[in-house]
Design goal:
Length: 433
Amino acid sequence: MMKAVITPVRQLIGETAVPGDKSISHRGVMLGAIAKGTTRLSHFLAGEDCLNTIKAFQGMGIDIRMENIEKEQGGTVLIHGKGLHGLKKPAGVIDVGNSGTTARLLSGILAGQPFSSTITGDESMRKRPMARVIEPLSRMGADIRLAAGNTLPLTIQGGRLKGMEYDMPVASAQVKSAIILAALYADSPVVLRQPARSRNHTEVMLRHFGGRVDEKGKAVTAFPAEELYGQDIQIPGDISSAAFFITAGLLVPDSRIIMKGVGINPTRTGIVDVYKQMGAKVRIENINSSYGEPAGDIIAEYSTLSPVDISGSIIPRLIDEIPVIALAATQAHGTTVIRDAAELKVKESNRIDMIVRTLRALGADIRAADDGMIIHGPTPLTGSIVTCRMDHRIAMMSAIAGLIAEGETVITDGEWVDISFPGFFEIIQNLRS
Ligand code: S3P
């Protein structure tokens, strides 16, 4: 275990890039593998989760090479795709490690393959719900079996699939993407209705690869495909990683942090909207767009924060940022309420429980609710010894809290940041002035 010790900082000034977007990196490997020809992914996230996606497809006979990969900066990934029907039955069990995105999206692709395969994951992943993807994929005609209950390991015998109309019970981009990927192998389109709009990186990228997916409000129609074609993709920085430094910029006095080239797809920018509502000095500049995925520089400055109510359709637009938003709320002047976020309970940890437990250990006034949390601020924070329990975002939330806490904050298992943000601690070091 890697013990990370964080001490308070007087000011954070500087400019930094953040690693490539995790959601987009996964999708690039998956679509590249089932497209014809070469796909080149630049600024690929070399985090453990995305490396597990690469391994899964290498195990199904796809030639995937990493060029100049540096763990911290990422690098370029070259995929020699073999087309929609080019995957081989894997020799052994596919281990997705900690990665829910790999497990769910891969299930969608495997549902369309004429072989049987088994997916498992690490201890955290083997607690996360899989019925949400199995139910719709089974309806489309896949034969999926779970060893026990609702969790991994699962075995999929895929094949010819049918189109369907489906009302999704949860707003989940992972479930939606699994169904869209399975629809590539169906005999007719799939019509999906989401309770709220979730990130649409699969839809955007699939169109770029020559597939057809229509989006209309909360409805998505996914079409079967004859063939997809490999593409060059420039992956923007991950706003979910930038979120930690946006928050640090707002909370540490006299700070100003510029994050370059961050993805700002509107299905992901809920945190910017919420921070603006809280009165934060945060803005986006130099906006550009590549194949339909916008990116820009995010500038965050030290701010006096007001409390906010967060609920409803904004939740999927900031679901992964709730740990660090909760931290920001501990410094806002008043009561912040987060609701409609029960999904947090089935992330890499039970995040309602872990956010509340960890921020309380650091001195915050925060209480769990059934589907969210209630935070009274501002409260001074005090360093403590905390554990992230296999949850990378809890580790990073604790580290940012440590920058404004009095004394030392010790994260006993800091190595978990490598899941999504290799180089996280080095960036903190470089921004200290
Ligand atoms: C993701 C979707 C979200 C998010 C996860 C990545 C994706 O999960 O929390 O980190 O890449 O599709 P859900 O779709 O389960 O909400």
